[in-house]
Amino acid sequence: MHAPEKNTAQMVETGESGTGPAFRSETVLPPDSVPEDKDHNEKDVSSAQYSLDEGDVLGLDVEHEIAPQANRLLSEIKELERECRWDAIVALCHPLEEKYPAIVESGLDIAIRKSLSFALVNAGRHMEAIGVLKSALRAEPEDYMVHYGIAYASYDALYRNKNRQLLLKPAEKQQLIELAHTHFKRCQQLSPGRVTPFYRDGMVFKEIEDKPRKAIPLLQKAVANWRCLSREEKKTRHQERPKYIRALYHLGSCLLKDSRPRKAHEVMAQMLNEDRDTDFVSPIFKHFGMAKVLFQLLKYEDAIKHLEVAIRASEADAKNLGGYVPDYVLELKAACLSRLKEPASALKVLKAIPEKKRRPYVRWREAEALVFMGKKEDAISVLNKALERDNRSRHKTLLRLSRIECSLGHFDAAILSAKKAAQFYRNTYGNPLKEADFLIAIAMFNKGEHERALHLMEGLKQDADKIPGFSKTYQKMRQRHNDFLLKDGVSHEA
User: Fold this and answer.
1) Domain boundaries 51-191, CATH class
2) Which of 146, 240, 237, 211 is closest to 184 using CA atoms?
3) What is this structure's pTM?
4) Per-domain boundaries in the chain
């Protein structure tokens, strides 16, 4: 494995790491398409900002001849922790069995292992960190912090892999997912009133496995656990409040992905209210998140208001040299403007993104605005530019091309683009692309190949709920075909 330079375990959970596509709406064909949603993150959370807040590693106070040595070692480790000198901690006491065998033999090594494991995580040595705690688990199978440490090491490795800072083989990734779930769930059983284990277990489902529906009950439990605390308990456990706020943020995102925008709006509004004076979630992301919800609710003007707040926050952000505004914020603003029948304004917004830096989903929005303006040939040219650098979502660009070509009456070209999309998707992801077959059927039908098109549509009926606009399109096809047969029959009788 390649070890990254710093801890990034909180990158997605804060809504603040890396970059990612914003809404990508299917607005050309078919008409009933649903925008996609992906969270956006930035890498501004350093390892120094995170500590093992699930419990304090205290000095040992036991009557044992080895206790003074163990306490001195713990004291030295804690001093290095305050300075974030993770490599120094590793050099000091890893492997523990070789450097301090007497402490290990005495059984006074559990607290040391917890700190050593955390240092190994920050040094990017996750499997060693897990191994260190598995030894402790044999001695203390009911220790909350040992289970939490194993889960957290797995969690951090998975996030680093997601952000391309750590290479994991598929089997390694699956192993870490299972470890994270197993030990977070054990933490939930050992301490059912905490926020963190429910929140982070939910984040594994949401961000690592892309299973928002499974994340929802865990995030809801994290929120409920915080809300049921007394005022004094909240003061005592103040370190869990940021996770409560982030749980609200990600719960809203999951509800949106689960096609529950009204409930998502309610949750996002709660998050904005709770976080108004603290910004545990970046102002850029929380207002962008609300804008995505409002976009789905067709409240485009309200969405733009939140996007303007996100833009001002970006411009004021001292970490972003030159007041850089994230492209996904501008992309969503352009989407809103196009739907407000202002496609020229949408294009103007997108021009703020340097042409060479326009990622595929920005090109998609650019093409969409051109379609709204009736400049479909120009839209095709823009999408062809996207294909020049689109290696991950190439099939989506090709599907957009197919729709526009079909709307222009270029049915053979539409079929070819859809077939290319299907081939790319099959070669890259190993699965059939049903939407490509849907667009092929539409083009075939418009060519007059009714029987072939309807046969293809029959084969897609079982996936109708996954293909935007399928049911209405299928009904129209059947009606038009029946009308054609009736007309053809009348003409023969004449």
Assistant:
1) mainly alpha
2) 146
3) 0.82
4) 51-191, 412-494
